[in-house]
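User: For my dataset I need records formatted as: sequence, then structure tokens, nothing else. Please produce one.
Assistant:
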Amino acid sequence: MYTALTFIGFTLFVAFYSWYKLRKEKLNSKDGYFLGGRSLTGVVIAGSMLLTNISTEHLIGMNGSSYKNGFIIIAWEVTSALALVVAAIYFVPKYLKMGLTTIPEYLEKRFDSTTRTLVALFLMISFIVTLLPIVLYTGAINLESIFNVSEVLEVSKKEGLWITVVAVGILGSIYAIFGGLKAVAVSDTINGYGLLIGGLAIPLIALVSIGDGNPLAGLTKVYNHSPEKFNVIGAKDSVLPFEVLFTGLIINQLYFWSMNQTIIQRALGAKNLVEAQKGLLYTGVLKILVPIIIILPGVIGFYYFGDSMHENQDMIYPELIKKVLPVGLVGIFAAIVMGAVLSTFNSVLNSAATIFSIDVFKRHFGKNCSDRKLVKVGKLTSLILAIFAILVAPMVANAPDGLYQLLQQLNGIFFIPIASIMLAGFFLKSISAMGAKVALFVGLIFYILTTFIFKVDIHFVHIWGIEFVLNLVVMFAVSYFYPPTQEMQQDNIVFVEMKTWKYTKPMAIMLCVVTVAIYILLGNAS
């Protein structure tokens, strides 16, 4: 009962604080609703980016994977810092100079309107079939485990998960539909730093307990129990071989942190370039710390539970929470986890609404429509997508390699083709619109065939790298026969102040050094 009260209390506090901060905001304009009025600061951007990225698919999925595979999966996190450096120095200054609201807008300026529409539709489909359902389902697993929803309501576990999915989906939709990006960002800031503090507390309390009051002694015990779990260099037959860092993973990270609408929309809403760069580089620092929250607890779980949960790895984190946290704190942490679910869910809904309203509806159905109507279309889009996600969510259960691995495999369907044409657009002037469009479909078909139909015996991240090279070859070949017919469109309008943050380069160097140091220090663990 006390757990439930603290959960409800913290959830209501975040909702009230978000309402209070937004009560005077003008949310009927395009920039006001979709970009937070271009007023976001570095701290808000970093908090929102972290929470948009880190949700229960990480808390549940990555801790489940580290329980089974150890620290080799750290590559998903720490290499993000390198991609954020590239985003801060190269990509975001270009986006802000162009005054973009969505990433597909860039594709129209560089290629043509059809490429923009195709990518917008690709992104909408990816949101519905991959990220939204997995976020909802992992959130439901966590809440069901902590509160025993099925027992309280006297229903089966499956029905309990369904009820939790619907409840979380409805609550997340309310944030996204009625508050826009600013509501998402404000609530994310509280929940983001709450997640950082609460997430760090879980392994710290566990290590203090294991080490009889000394967390370092506890860490030593966990290490001595299974030193192989601390190795970051994955073998060729592991869940994440070390070699993938130099093939598909680097492409995926560049896409995710530099071109993914859900993430980069926060930087597009920055009040100026300084705040955008601060936000991106602060996020890089947080991503270096994040493995303590989403990887270390899984390894600690192996110390506590051994192989007993090997067949049900995605339950390890909820079980660890119940084991190490005092009863009074379980409710608060469950509310923070709920915030993480809502954050990613409503962030994706807001981004999907932004893409559909601006890249599809305004261009094809309402060229002269008012901002007020555009916002209404965005809200309706969010509602429809939320319903789809709720219906699809229970279908992702029982992923053989865990939910996080499933999410990454599904993401490859859309991320790599889009990343290919984005990078080609920026760095290869000879690539034409026809080349980009053909590569989109060739990449999509190639990945689906090799990963899901013929199931080629090559790690899916290596397939990302092969697909990227294939897409480049296709673009060069098609562009040879169908050369570019238009120059890059560049507006000379100043949207925000474009002065560079003075600490951008020192922060960038520090993040690169720390990332390499992690691999050197942990690379020899065995």
